[in-house]
Design brief:
It is a single chain. The protein is mainly alpha-helical and 196 residues long. 78% of the residues lie in helices and 0% in strands. The longest helix is centred in the C-terminal third of the chain and has 28 residues. The radius of gyration is 17 Å and the shape is globular. The two termini are 22 Å apart.
Length: 196
């Protein structure tokens, strides 16, 4: 059996649903990290993302099999989703929207697609389908939940982090990740066509 490329999975999850994304999304929620509403929203958002990640791994692989979705088609879908996300990142200027009111915004509106975009679902599914087995799926879940826990910690301090480092590092990472995601999207589509 082929060894799971754990470093590649971590890199892809980090790029699609990692701390840089969490800080950027959550820095716009509320005005102060210490607000009870901000902390509560961070808790609820992280729990929603964790639940969605579990559903993606535990139910997604079965659903794909039941629907007869082939592995090349899954990879192709990932390529299309990543292509759209990377173009959005590269061609749209950073959002300059105002702060979201933590007391009125729903956790689901922050979590999806902000903290857990569709491409993160596809990445997790690709690895879960390519490397079946309870132990492997448990390790994928552990990696995803570990990343979500890190995001949760950083969401609770996102405004302080952004004040300390400023917006430029996040914008730089966004541009670099956008180019990397575009290249990866094209590779996914190429691989999907080659497998058919």
């Amino acid at each position: 059996m082929t060894e799971v490329p754990w470093g590649q999975l971590f890199g892809l999850l980090f790029m699609t649903m990692g701390p840089i994304r969490a800080i950027a999304v959550f820095s716009r929620v509320g005005t102060d990290d210490a607000q009870p509403e901000v902390k509560s929203l961070a808790n609820r958002s992280a729990l929603l993302v964790a639940g969605a990640f579990l559903v993606a791994i535990l139910m997604g692989t079965g659903a794909l099999g039941a629907w007869g979705v082939s592995f090349p088609v899954l990879i192709g879908a990932g390529g299309v989703a990543l292509f759209a996300l990377s173009l959005q990142t590269l061609l749209s200027p950073p959002a300059q929207g105002g702060q979201l009111d933590a007391a009125t915004v729903h956790a689901a509106n922050v979590a999806f697609p902000g903290l857990f975009p569709p491409i993160a679902v596809v990445v997790a599914l690709i690895f879960a389908v390519a490397f079946p087995g309870v132990e492997t799926h448990a390790a994928i879940i552990a990696m995803g939940l570990g990343l979500i826990a890190l995001n949760w910690l950083l969401m609770r301090r996102s405004k302080a982090i952004l004040r300390a480092i400023g917006p430029v590092p996040l914008q730089l990472f966004g541009a670099v990740f956008g180019v990397l995601q575009l290249a990866l999207a094209l590779q996914f589509m190429h691989d999907a066509v080659a497998m058919l």
